[in-house]
């Protein structure tokens, strides 16, 4: 009998069933030949039960594989006889195939060769569970590491598809309203000269009640000190559900910032800041990541009259420490690096109604970054390699704010509330590619090609529009010291929420 070889369709079908999504796979060399995986009816019954279980490969098993005649290959190859797979209820588990099958092959049952029998026992290959055994008519035996492939698709790919969103969350936490400059400008406090808009009390009426002085806005200014030093601490959280094939994740970020401002002119301020950031993330039981690094930011704020304009540039460099559960009883580790460039533009106008400052504001945040490609360690046959990931994000916003200054014995307190509608314009779904670092194919008897295995899928694009709500307090102590307590939340974004909180202290010299 002519010996056929096996093409990749079988593993493709296995992966489609395991993932339930739209993915693409490829092999560097590929199996060639005529192999029909599924017969006329394709897969029927599919996975019945738990599918892929991290404790021990696929559990729940295959109740029925193939069509009416199992796997058929045009007569030259019959996989499983007339009844498909018979007799086993569990695929994977602690000992691979369980339930007792003695032979695979054509219509006439053929036992495995002595070499093949010496290569596996109790359905495992080399004592490792989760292998699919394929035989050909001349007793060539191929082991397909289905558990390693499943680890790539069910664990590695979902983690890879989520990394970009986790990075963007961390970057937002590192650059959000450095030194509270946007809060202050929206509150009507000129960051350069500390001008505050206050209401001048109306003069008393004349004795005849004919002369009335209307309330009017005036500027109070202190020119003392050209330098301001500031320090801040921040906390941020993100909760993202599954989107398509991308794993959900939860993340918490802590940041600390030190910086200085210099007044270049009466209404112009230049600021520099350095931020240390740490993020702890969890990929919905598939693994965890610890991210830390630094961001350097520079900003320029201009406050001509009731207008304000601000521009910020930030560069961030971060390192991730990733631990991924392979589902094979091992944990894969990696330490990739990433870099990010951010440009933010904000502008607004304040209507000054006595102690009340209110008005519209607009903004634009552009971010560009890259996560370096990396290869996992310590996971043996479950180790994966990941290609570089690049991302672009452009968020636009339109909002309104209201601030009210209350004089106190020690200075003043200004509460503020604000809301903006934001839109993500560029964060498109891009292909992400993941591959096994070693081939999942092993010839147990005979020989042949052992191609590489890789899988790729598109990232799931998040909801474009969402609501940004925030509020806080500006506390002035004397004329040279202030504290800001601030909160911001991103809500109404489908399956994603972000929250930010910060405390900022600033001293003018």
Automatic annotation (TrEMBL):
Domain (Autotransporter) ranges: 222-509
Keywords: Signal
Keyword Lipid metabolism: no
Source superkingdom: Bacteria
SMART domains per the UniProt record, alphabetical: Autotransporter
Annotated signal peptide: 1-24
Stored InterPro entries: Autotransporte_beta, Autotransporte_beta_dom_sf, Autotransporter_adhesion
Electron transport keyword on record: no
Gene3D superfamilies registered for this protein in UniProt: Autotransporter beta-domain
Protein's name according to its UniProt entry: Uncharacterized protein YhjY with autotransporter beta-barrel domain
